[in-house]
Automatic annotation (TrEMBL):
Keywords: ATP-binding, Nucleotide-binding, Transport. Signal peptide: none annotated. This is ABC transporter ATP-binding protein. The keyword Nucleotide-binding applies. The lineage of its organism: Bacteria, Bacillati, Actinomycetota, Actinomycetes, Micrococcales.
Length: 238
């Protein structure tokens, strides 16, 4: 299932988690509109719901209320199996930790993602071509623990784009890197995004990384409420 277009739209999103201390409001967001092929950086205080939002955009979870639409597909209405299929084919994800499989080489890690998305082996040498383009070809037979943190994160970007996803979602992808490596990773990500025409939603705390996106969106802290009287309140943030 390929989406018709790759805009990202969210409307009236609310995510609530029931906990023993009452209901946690993890996210409230009226409206998010990202054009197909656009890049946006999401910024906001810790705990304001940025990772929760990316999880909804990825189809990893469904909102308590509201809708998420990718192109013409309302992914928040898809049942789990259809959502998983949609995500495998159309989404590329990068996290703060690279999450590479330690016993697989660089090319195997990237190739595995291609197999998951396409259910087919890399018949056309696409992995090799991508690693070449991203300047990672010399590393292709190394294991993750034979790479620097910055190199590992660039491999994670390669893994996120090898299947030419409609949307790339990145959750603090440079959060554990020094500035020079952060710069290289974001270069790799934005070059790849443009090359495949994907839409990019990037969560970051770093203003210099955020400025690389076409647009910056500030997310405000959701109002936290809880039933229990000793619940934590954040009056300065509501
Ligand atoms: P951010 O990524 O902006 O730091 P998160 O999206 O991780 O924020 O979390 C938003 C809020 O939701 C936080 O208050 C967090 O503690 C809460 N939260 C996230 N996941 C859960 C969960 N599974 N159960 C209860 N609360 C959660
Ligand atoms: Mg987070």
């Amino acid at each position: 299932m390929k989406p018709a277009g790759n805009s990202v739209t969210a409307r009236d999103l609310v995510v609530e988690y029931p906990t023993p201390r009452g209901t946690v409001h993890a996210l409230s967001l009226d409206r998010l509109e990202v054009d197909g092929g656009e890049s946006v950086a999401i910024m906001g205080p810790s705990g304001c719901g940025k990772s929760t939002l990316l999880g909804l955009l990825a189809g990893l979870a469904r909102p308590t209320t509201g809708t998420v639409t990718i192109g013409a597909t309302v992914i928040s209405s898809l049942q789990e199996k259809a959502r998983i299929r949609f995500r495998r084919q159309n989404m590329g994800m990068v996290y703060q930790a690279d999450n590479l499989l330690p016993h697989l080489s660089v090319e195997e890690n990237v190739g595995l993602q291609l197999g998951i998305a396409r259910r087919a082996a890399d018949a056309d040498g696409e992995v090799e071509a991508l690693l070449q383009r991203l300047g990672l070809a010399a590393l292709r037979t190394r294991l993750p623990d034979q790479l620097s943190g910055g190199q590992r994160q660039r491999v994670a970007v390669a893994r996120a784009v090898i299947h030419r996803p409609a949307v790339i979602l990145a959750d603090e992808p440079t959060g554990s890197l020094d500035p020079a490596n952060a710069e290289r990773v974001i270069d790799t990500m934005i070059d790849s995004q443009r090359a495949i025409g994907a839409t990019l939603v990037l969560v970051t705390h770093d203003p210099s990384i955020a400025r690389r996106a076409d647009r910056i969106i500030e997310l405000e802290r959701a109002i936290l409420t809880a039933a229990a009287p000793d619940a934590v309140a954040v009056p300065d943030a509501v």
